[in-house]
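Translate structure to sequence.
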């Protein structure tokens, strides 16, 4: 689940007046266990995506998986949110509310954002999938967005700076011929004993700025990309964020821990091995 620039929580280690939570190696292990539950829940929901299935039914799949594996959904009840997952379709960018009366149709793109708590530790991850066969435009949008996430994750290494991640995401998106929009009102975030923590992680910007990336820092990296204008508006439900021009959007997210051995993608089943390989990065596994 994304966070805006405002409303972040107080944490533990100071940086420019903010507090950033640094975890021990054992606490990162606990976050990995939480991350595997979220990964499994997303896998189960993805398998259930089909024409005619309601977003409410997908929500039930996620909640059942998380609870049956010892976790607690961290979206459910968060500031009054009524779902275990966010289900955002087509021009909806993030925070779509699951609804038993809203059914998927062939050709829809659906962003599925999911998170869990295990032993007090949070995880957060998102995928976008097409119902049935995607158009060439949709396939490209999803590929560009997912690759930009992995480009950012590849820069989640000790010794760097936070905006190294931001710059890598933007550079990846801008490298394509189509002028994709980068949503700038929302971004990634720190994660740990709360779902949303400092620091806020932009999906654009100059490198070499912001807090230093140190072992024990955990972040959720989540680019949101549009085919058209990235300007957004929030619907009357107080949650769903859509593109103003009605263009389609995609959203991918992983939680990652910075370790002495390299980035550890906590919500990827393989720890990030496959996704980071094209960038020449070997994650902790």
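Result:
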């Amino acid at each position: 689940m994304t966070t805006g620039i405002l409303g972040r929580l107080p944490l533990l280690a100071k940086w420019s007046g903010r507090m950033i939570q640094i975890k021990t190696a054992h606490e990162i292990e606990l976050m990995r266990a939480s991350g595997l539950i979220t990964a499994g829940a997303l896998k189960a929901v993805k398998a259930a995506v089909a024409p005619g299935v309601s977003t409410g039914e997908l929500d039930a799949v996620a909640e059942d998986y998380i609870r049956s594996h010892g976790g607690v959904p961290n979206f459910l009840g968060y500031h009054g949110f009524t779902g275990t997952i966010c289900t955002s379709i087509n021009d909806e960018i993030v925070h779509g509310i699951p609804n038993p009366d809203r059914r998927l149709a062939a050709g829809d793109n659906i962003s599925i954002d999911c998170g869990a708590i295990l032993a007090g530790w949070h995880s957060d991850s998102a995928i976008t999938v097409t119902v049935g066969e995607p158009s060439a435009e949709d396939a490209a949008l999803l590929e560009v967005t997912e690759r930009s996430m992995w480009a950012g994750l590849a820069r989640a290494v000790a010794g760097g700076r936070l905006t190294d991640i931001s710059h890598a995401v933007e550079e990846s998106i801008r490298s394509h011929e189509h002028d994709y929009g980068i949503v700038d009102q929302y971004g990634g975030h720190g994660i740990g004993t709360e779902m949303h923590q400092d620091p806020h992680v932009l999906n654009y910007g100059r490198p070499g700025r912001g807090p230093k990336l140190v072992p024990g820092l955990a972040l959720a990296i989540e680019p949101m990309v549009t085919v058209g204008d990235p300007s957004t508006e929030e619907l009357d439900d107080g949650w769903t964020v859509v593109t103003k021009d009605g263009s389609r959007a995609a959203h991918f997210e992983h939680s990652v821990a910075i370790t002495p051995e390299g980035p550890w993608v906590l919500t990827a089943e393989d720890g990030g091995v496959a996704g980071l390989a094209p960038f020449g990065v070997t994650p902790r596994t």
